[in-house]
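Sequence in, structure out. Go.
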Amino acid sequence: MSNTAARMVLAEPGPTRCEVDRATLARCCAGDAASMRAFVRHYERMVLAFLSRSLGFGPQVEDLAQEVFLRAARALPEFDVDGTARISTWLLTIARRLVIDARRERRLPVLPLVDDAAVDPSTPETERARLELGRTIAAAAHRLPDDQRDAFILAEFHGQTMQEVATVLGISEATAKTRLFRAREKLRDWLRGVWEDR
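Output:
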């Protein structure tokens, strides 16, 4: 997926709640290449969106997305289809671990969550205002501590439940709620002037 396509993913709402079916998972576990390609196509937008929102745009994000699916392909036979975790939550957990490693290594620059190329202008005034608001929100989100930012991205952009956020982040549900609450409070404070001007 190109950087332009990855940017378009960011402009879209969170992923669908639909998961791949058991038959496809079984064929993936059996090594069926066509089923694995279908699996990747089904989840790649979600994975790219999470990585881009967490780390910014760039070719490194696509490399990390490939690594997510390589790790998933190796570990998929161990995934408990009868367990409580959804495949999407499991994939986001893998992606989150790679985000932690990337941040630790400081090899990825953080770029804005919203990019000018992601917007298709209709009227100059409204689009200019939307771009300005998007930049302001992106700048505010980048000011959040990493742990709060990840909780916010998972809950607000990926529609994860608190239990799923906790699973992806490897923390208790209470801690996930606290991080999300603090992220929302900080963003509300930082953006108060922006909302009052609208």
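Check: Residues 1-16, 107-112, 114-119 have pLDDT under 50 and may be disordered. The chain has one domain: 3-197.
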